[in-house]
């Protein structure tokens, strides 16, 4: 699966997810076996991400330059 996902629905999670925004997906085979996905959401203080229903996202492939920009922006804020 893709390293990045696009949020297509934030019902029930509007404080944490923005529809149309790309999020970094973290591997979690156990969560995925239950239809869940671990992503780094708007709360960047949690580097291990949070679990959400996988149906809220679709995988996306990004150019390398976009990946670098997203990784640079996913670190802790001072």
Largest sheet: 5 strands, antiparallel
Tally of helical runs:
2
User: Which strands sit side by side, in order, in the main sheet?
Assistant: 4-3-2-1-5
Helicity, as a percent range: 10-25%
Give a quick rundown of the structure:
The chain has 78 residues and is of the alpha+beta class.
Task: Set out the fold topology.
Elements: E1 4-7, E2 22-26, H1 29-32, E3 36-40, E4 50-53, E5 57-60, H2 64-72
Antiparallel strand pairs: 1-2, 1-5, 2-3, 3-4
Keywords:
2 helices, SH3 type barrels, single chain, 5 strands, alpha+beta, 5-stranded antiparallel beta sheet, about 80 residues
3D structure, described in words:
By secondary structure, this protein is α+β, with helices and mostly antiparallel strands. The chain has one domain: SH3 type barrels, CATH 2.30.30. The protein is built from 2 helices and 5 strands. The protein has helices at 29-32, 64-72, and strands at 4-7, 22-26, 36-40, 50-53, 57-60. It has a 5-stranded antiparallel beta sheet, with no helix packed on it. The protein is globular, with a radius of gyration of 12 Å. The model has no long low-confidence stretch (mean pLDDT 86).
């Amino acid at each position: 699966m893709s390293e990045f996902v696009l949020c297509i629905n934030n019902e029930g999670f509007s404080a944490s997810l923005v529809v149309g925004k790309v999020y970094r997906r973290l591997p979690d085979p156990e969560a995925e076996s239950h239809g869940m996905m671990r992503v780094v959401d708007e709360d960047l203080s949690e580097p291990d991400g949070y679990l959400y229903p996988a149906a809220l996202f679709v995988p996306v492939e990004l150019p390398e330059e976009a990946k670098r920009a997203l990784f640079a922006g996913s670190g802790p804020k001072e």
